Amino acid sequence: MTLNVYLSGEIHTDWREQIIEGSRGLDVSFHAPVTIHENSDDCGVAILGEEPNKYWHDHKGAMVNAIRTRKGIADADVVVVRFGEKYKQWNAAFDAGYAAALGKSLIILHGADHQHALKEVDAAALAVAEEPSQVVEILRYVLTGSLPA
């Protein structure tokens, strides 16, 4: 069994790399949004033309990024959504809701300090993890039936 995993959420830490590295040897294909912040913010105007109004600048970028996000979530067997410490990730909450609406297997990743704020998001998930290594162990268990050593 091959798992197609979409890694959504905050882009300011190396949690994606930790999951990808920890999953070496497992039959997993990973996909993610563009994680270079400037590229993500400016893709719309870089491709479709400048906007003097910041609202339309951001709107164009959001629409272009949504093409990749929708495809990644739609094709995924498992969607992992990470809520980081530093910023409010409204887009991550949207991605989690979209994945839940599509019936995707959802793993939410966040620290204990977000438990209350994300209780509805957590309730839609099949697992809520605090560390990337726990996500790796979930993927390993799903693919092999093996428990952590």
Polypeptide structure, described:
- The protein is an alpha/beta fold and 149 residues long.
- It contains six helices and five strands.
- A five-stranded parallel sheet has the order 2-1-3-4-5, sandwiched between helices.
- Helix 5 (119-124) links the parallel strand 4 and strand 5.
- The model has no long low-confidence stretch (mean pLDDT 96).
Question: What is this structure, in a nutshell?
Answer:
By secondary structure, this protein is of the alpha/beta class. It has helices at residues 15-22, 37-48, 54-75, 90-101, 119-124, 132-144, and strands spanning 3-9, 28-31, 78-82, 105-109, 127-129. The protein has a domain at 3-33 and 74-144: Rossmann fold (3-Layer(aba) Sandwich).
Q: Which spans have pLDDT < 50 for at least 5 consecutive residues? A: none
Q: How do the helices and strands follow one another from N- to C-terminus?
A: EHEHHEHEHEH
Beta strands, count: 5
Helix content: 40-55%
Largest sheet: 5 strands, parallel
Trace the largest sheet across and list its strands: 2-1-3-4-5
What is the level-2 CATH architecture name of the domain at 3-33 and 74-144?
3-Layer(aba) Sandwich
Indicate the radius of gyration in whole angstroms.
16 Å
